[in-house]
Amino acid sequence: MSTSTTNIESVLHEERIFAAPPEFSEKAHIRSMRELEELREEAERDPEGFWARMAEELHWFKRWDTVLKWEPPHAEWFGGGEINISYNCLDRHLTSWRRNKAAIIWEGEPGEQRTLTYQQLHRDVCRFANVLKRAGVQKGDRVALYMPLIPELAIAMLACARIGATHSVVFGGFSADALKDRINDAGCKVVVTADGAFRRGTEVRLKPAVDEALKHTPTIEACIVVRRTGSNVRMQLGRDHWWHEWMEAAASDCAPEELPSEHPLFILHTSGTTGKPKGILHTTAGYLLYAHLTTKWVFDLKEEDIYWCTADIGWVTGHTYVVYGPLSNGATVLMYEGAPNYPEPDRFWQMIERHRVNIFYTAPTAIRAFIKWGEQWPRKHDLSSLRLLGTVGEPINPEAWMWYRDAIGGGRCPIVDTWWQTETGGIMISPLPGATPTKPGSATKPLPGIAADIMTKTGEPVADNLGGYLVIKRPWPAMLRTIWGDDERYREAYWSEIEGVYFAGDGARRDADGYYWIMGRVDDVINVSGHRLGTMEIESALVSHEAVAEAAVVGRPDELKGQAIVAFVTLEGTRQASDELKGALRQHVAKEIGALAKPDDIRFTDALPKTRSGKIMRRLLREIAASGAVAGDTTTLEDFSVLERLRAQEEE
Ligand code: WT7
User: Fold this and answer.
1) What b/e string do you get for 269-303 counting C-beta neighbours within 10 Å, with b at 16 or more?
2) What tens digit of pLDDT does each residue of 61-81 get?
3) Where do the domains of the chain lie, and which CATH numbers do they carry?
4) Which of 278, 292, 376, 644 lies 20 to 30 angstroms, CA to CA, from 351?
């Protein structure tokens, strides 16, 4: 255990290690650690030369003049180049047999299926690009997309990219208020939506929320509505238009705009566990290059694969690894509209069996739900088509990792635990499945070209196994370019905490093998008697107890120790809360990681407050632990009743 008191201490021990399976490595794009190290060394020797060599894989209308102009904290990648993302994701595949390959296989929650080949997708994208033009959208305008997870969402994104409009996808689960704020922040001219979406067997109405939002969005000139559920909606004359009517009337050819490399591709507001959401801006060429390469490297895509990333397109994961990365590689992408437990908790496993899915990428929060629902659900299905599993979004505790490997991967599939952020645009730290030996709970090593490191608050290097701040020391092609409309906040949030480097806001440690272990957001660190502890490790210890399904740990002010540790715990289906169990859990943590980390207080609850992307909002739990009430912003919370229930439990 570390003795440092200025950094974040690491207390998690994990010794298991899994080599890449030889039969996987044989066919992989990158087959060994030696090949991977060679790429890393090439990138270290000459970063710009490396990215330039990689950029040859894309289609350029005009080649770049300079690879990188870096005026910290502003980067210009591939200056002088001209490119179009929709061309790279679509037109490029139409000159080969791929034109008749499935680009998107989609399932609606009620069970209907649609398949779009590259040729069909191209035609719809061209048409919708013409629809956008008809609605008055020009190069540089912003378009809000507030839609269900249906192919039309991907079509709308690619159509924006085709004509040089900047899209701002707002997750369909957000409220009218959140939509209004995001439309106004980006100054969107048009919004694309649907009547509604299906979720857990009921309709989530979208159009009424849009109507509400549009009362206070002066920049919106038109609203285009997909008919998805068929429910009754109010169409405002002159402003609202049906998608299918305008598509029918639109020409099916539309030349792609030849856009400068740094043309703004999209704005995406971070889900934000703290503070006001930030409009993260990504641009064209660097983002595409990185999405393309990381999809190929990390998911080791093969021509015949069926690839499924379960993320909603409303998150960056959906942007990069449902739409742009896979399509630019000519992959077949599976998309699913609804909930993982509809009609029953085996929907995902049923779909894997039905479509013979090969690559499956999901989030730890989902994996923990699967564990809670029980292994009988995956066991009912033939999952033998799977060859690779991935996770993203949070640290995955080693027990959940092992369950994923065994219950879903049949002990056969490598797991890629991928660390990245909305801001990084693509995966930064991850195993390559044919090369990197994996350790449960570690995202392993930075990808080639990514200069990650761990530092103290003052920018000093941190020795092996001591926790510190995760930073990136060199610009990378898919880095965010700024916060839309607030460059000052961009400097402050990412480039001022530690001099000269990108500050990710996560705590991490690196072990003696150079493997990274992400310890969670530094805002969540708890200070117990001068020891700074990451919440994730204590949570991981709690979850390794057989009675615990999920745990969230926060600090509460304590006169003696500075902060006391409070753990909010949900139990496995059949387990009952009791004082005895509280004692057992405290002992369990003491045994797993030491007395220092033993929770002072354990509270059983039936649910934890989460953002819609599944991140636990520890800020709210901190408030509840300290004062029993919540005063802060709760607009990104998924289920408000959780707070009520936590408060009620408080009063018991
Ligand atoms: C934050 C970024 C990147 C797409 C989804 C989330 C946490 C993400 C991991 C991982 C440990 C992870 C970090 C990061 N995170 N992936 N593999 N291991 N932590 O995007 O909403 O921008 O969140 O998610 O704390 O900073 P995001």
Assistant:
1) bbbbbeeebbbbbbbbbbbbbbbbbbbbbbbbbbe
2) 999 999 999 999 999 999 999
3) 118-253 (3.40.50.980), 525-651 (3.30.300.30)
4) 292
